[in-house]
Design a protein that fits this description.
- It is a single chain.
- This protein is of the alpha/beta class.
- The chain is built from 11 helices and 14 strands.
- Strand 2, helix 2 and strand 3 form a beta-alpha-beta unit.
- Helix 1 runs parallel beside helix 2, helix 3 packs parallel to helix 5 and helix 5 runs parallel beside helix 6.
- It is globular, with a radius of gyration of 19 Å.
- The model has no long low-confidence stretch (mean pLDDT about 100).
- The structure holds nicotinamide-adenine-dinucleotide and UDP-4-deoxy-4-formamido-beta-L-arabinopyranose.
- UDP-4-deoxy-4-formamido-beta-L-arabinopyranose (WQD) binds next to helix 7 and strand 8.
Length: about 325
């Protein structure tokens, strides 16, 4: 049985991926400092899978502790690296925090992997590395030119991983996620933000009556209805992409970069309207000004992941929104009791 160490495994995407790993019969070791998550997510993953995982409440910035975890756990076969700070706006206000946590954390992790002879890593990258691409759908060989410190950390971590892979012959999978949304079909695990920075969790909270209205960031974009278009990807599909990437790295020890999206775009207005239909809630929405740094349209060309990983997105918009709503309505306070 393969043992996978998952950094940030208590988080939104990490928890769904831990569940997918346990369901695929991997052993799972989580390292998470719970700085943006709750242990309750781990409890629920264990309940859903009817399996136990090994949990370490620790920061990846603590190299000594990381070394000890690798030693204690023995025979870790691969790492999936989610642990990072991820809010674009906050990264502009506190760039040093982002460079410290994301870059230094990744360096510590790679050192510990090297010391323990663990040579496969799947990394959470982001479509944010493309900035505003010249063409959409965007392919993996498009220019990398992020427009904010968070995106810069992702681009830098990609480069660090590529150099490490090339020097030591490691297997590296850089998964560039587009816009992850939705929740597990049980509604028991999902995204639990303090304050939602992204569209769908914000709309969920408006539907639930926690917030009064959604502000649409610009209605004058060169898109069919004037609002921003994005490639939303169900978090369960995203979790499965990680399992496929682990299998790929077993067979091919080189660096692979994959877009993980559907290739199908939806506008802000379409998202809000579909949410209204599914939740049967009013969801007041007003038009506001554009948010700095937003691009009109961002879509993935995920052909490479389809071909090389044998991965395909299974869930459509209805499932993305109905599971997000199920999670929100079943857990009005998120993981808090
Ligand atoms: P999240 O905040 O829910 O999960 C990140 C987890 O990492 C949290 O549990 C947090 O406590 C943990 N963490 C942060 N710093 C840590 C540290 N120093 N040591 C140990 N644990 C630490 O975020 P998410 O949405 O699940 O994102 C997971 C990854 O995917 C991140 O790397 C993020 O940048 C990337 N990503 C997310 C999105 C998105 O829209 N959610 C899109 C593209 C890429
Ligand atoms: C989607 C659309 C907004 C909120 C971000 C990060 C990216 C990646 C995914 C981590 C846009 C509009 C939003 C609101 C709105 N994360 N919107 N009102 O900006 O595409 O991507 O999350 O890697 O790095 O930048 O996602 O959900 O914030 O926005 O109108 O209250 O919704 O303008 O068109 P985004 P988002």
């Amino acid at each position: 049985m393969s043992k996978i160490l998952v950094t940030g495994g208590a988080g939104y995407i990490g928890s769904h991926t831990c569940l997918a790993l346990l369901e695929a019969n991997y052993e799972v070791v989580v390292v998470d400092d719970l700085s943006n998550s709750s242990y309750e997510a781990i409890t629920r993953v264990e309940k859903l899978s009817k399996k136990k995982l090994s949990f370490h409440k620790e920061s990846i910035l603590n190299k000594e502790a990381l070394d000890q975890i690798f030693q204690k756990e023995k025979n870790v076969d691969a790492v999936i690296h989610f642990a990072a700070k991820k809010a674009v706006g906050e990264s502009c206000e506190k760039p040093l925090l982002y460079y410290q946590n994301n870059i230094s954390g990744t360096l510590q992790l790679l050192e510990s992997m090297k010391a323990s002879n663990v040579t496969d890593i799947v990394f959470s990258s982001s479509a944010t590395v493309y900035g505003e691409p010249d063409e959409v759908p965007v392919k993996e060989d498009a220019d990398v030119r992020p427009t904010n410190p968070y995106g810069q950390t992702k681009a830098m971590m990609e480069q660090i991983l590529k150099d490490t892979g090339a020097a030591y012959g490691w297997g590296i999978a850089l998964l560039r996620y587009f816009n992850p949304v939705g929740a597990h079909i049980s509604g028991d695990i999902g995204e639990d933000p303090e304050y939602p920075n992204n569209l769908l969790p914000f709309v969920s909270q408006v539907a639930a009556g926690i917030r009064k209205k959604v502000t649409i960031f610009g209605e004058d974009y060169p898109t069919p209805d004037g609002t921003g278009v994005r490639d939303y990807i169900h978090v369960i599909d995203l979790a499965h992409a990680h399992v496929k990437a682990l299998i790929k790295l077993k067979q091919d020890k080189s660096t692979h970069t994959y877009n993980i999206g559907t290739g199908r775009g939806y506008s802000v207005k379409e998202m809000v309207e579909t949410f209204r239909k599914i939740s049967q809630k009013e969801i007041p929405a007003v038009c506001g000004s554009r948010r700095e740094g937003d691009v009109p349209i961002l879509l993935a060309d995920a052909t490479l992941a389809n071909k090389e990983l044998g991965w395909q997105a299974e869930f459509g918009l209805e499932e993305m929104i109905s599971t997000a709503w199920k999670w929100q309505s079943q857990n009005p306070k998120g993981y808090k009791a």
